[in-house]
Amino acid sequence: MPENLTDANPRGLHFIVELANAVQDGTRVGAADLMDLLARHGGPPFRLTEAEAGQLCEATGELIGILATTDPDAAAEAINALLGRHPARPHLVRLPGRPWSLHAQADRSAGPAPWLLSTAALALGLWFSERGGCAWGRCAAPDCEHYFIDTGRRTPQRYCSTRCATRVRVAAHRAQRGAAAD
Ligand SMILES: [Zn+2]
Known about the structure:
Blueprint lengths: L10 H15 L5 H10 L9 H18 L4 H14 L5 E3 L7 E3 L8 H20 L4 E3 L8 E3 L12 H20 L1
Antiparallel strand pairs: 1-2, 3-4
Helix pairs in contact: 1-3, 3-5, 4-5
The structure holds zinc ion (ZN).
């Protein structure tokens, strides 16, 4: 993500959501897990200590706060506050074979947590502004509390994954058949 993040490319946002879900679940959040997660999303190759992993998780809590927000005014305020504290210093980059796009130029020497907060604030801000609202949400399936980025253009997304959507549909179908059999 974070290295090549644009509003047209929600890859970075998927990193944020995967991180948020891992932290929320309280699993896969050790230094090795987080380095693996970063690598899978094309993030900078941080060598994390367990202390830094803890700081990253704590910082992720702030991002979860934004993902849990559905009120656009409140979300804008929270993103602005984050951008104020962790300036993303956006600049235009032209990646090979792609048009110019806006990227965070976060100070990586400050450590992984400030880097995460500044790049995520820009990513969420760009996405929020492109979509004109909180284009994210929390899964509506029972016993799933995962967040997702709503990439749907027409109807709002309700589930974190097709797995959850199918699970709910199958359960509803079974309940209906059960009711019909009664
Ligand atoms: Zn789900």
